[in-house]
Amino acid sequence: MGERLQAFLDNDSMFGRIMTRCGIIIAANLMFLLFSMPVVTIGASYTALYHVMLKTLRGDGVINPFKQFWAGFKSNFKQATIYWLVLLALVVFGYADVTICRQAGGIMQYFMYAIYALGMIALTITLHMFPVMAAFRDSILHLMRNALFFAVKKPVRTLVLLFFNVFPLYLTYTDAQMQPLYAFIWCFFGFGALAMLGSYMLLPDFKIYLPEVDESGNFV
To answer: What are the Cα distances from residue 131, in Å, to 28, 103, 125, 193, 194?
Structure first.
């Protein structure tokens, strides 16, 4: 009985692997929240979060989520921050345009739909941009091109990613009664779980263009 219990709790067992993954998700999620507090670093933090998840999925060994998060944060800080600040500026500009069109009325309201369409395209690219940035090294423009490539390559996957990244946030802001529970989920593991889901869905296509790795996820 003792041997069976030990085998069940071993890191190499199915239960041990699941618990290890859960621990990595929780630890990386806490690091993401901590490093996102200045707001301007959210882009770098989100990229680092994907760096941890991709590293976890690519290797069979146990990684240090704190060390890997910091490594991903440092290596992608400049590009991710530039992209994030430009994205924030576009969001503010788009929101102002929508407000103006709504107040103007008439034919100007039709411009709102064009702005919404551009916003959806920007959101789609952004959802792929951070994992692409975590996986590949290139210029921002080339990374955006790659993000669009992966988004268009499998439209159903893109729709799934959009749903799981947008709908939970929509519930969080609209369901006031359940907001304490949603806040707990986001603070504890929510962002990490979404990054793990995105990494799991994107990694099969990423692997084609990535070098081989050892059991710890390091390049060989």
So the answer is: 15, 38, 11, 14, 11
